[in-house]
Design a protein that fits this description.
115 residues, mainly beta, 55% strand
């Protein structure tokens, strides 16, 4: 099946930057949308950004102008560049691949923004 391997999470200070990566492997031919979600303890899981196979991007209002989602088809990888990070960005970030009739989730990576 499709597998997603995430990397790039960590601990950063407010105003700092971080880049998350999500590499897909397996039967990836049917993936048509890649997404980044985040969830803080006690909070609803939130869609942060998405990108279609055609390159169309969507962002949550809370991250618009600070985060950028991009994809590298040759590497089967999607990225989330996070700039001007705020403490409220602290969460577990999850990569999700949308296939026809089936979703695949990554393992999640912790992002902590604190001074």
């Amino acid at each position: 099946q499709v597998q997603l391997v995430e990397s790039g999470g960590g601990y950063v200070q407010p105003g700092g930057s971080l880049r998350l990566s999500c590499a897909a492997s397996g039967s990836i031919g049917s993936i048509y949308v890649m997404n980044w979600y985040r969830q803080a303890p006690g909070k609803q899981r939130q869609l942060v950004a998405s990108i279609t196979s055609g390159g169309t991007t969507t962002y949550a209002d809370s991250v618009k102008g600070r985060f950028t989602i991009s994809g590298d088809n040759a590497k089967n990888t999607v990225y989330l560049q996070m700039n001007r990070l705020k403490p409220e960005d602290t969460a577990v970030y999850y990569c999700k691949a949308q296939l026809v009739g089936f979703n695949v989730w990554g393992q999640g990576t912790q992002v902590t923004v604190s001074s």
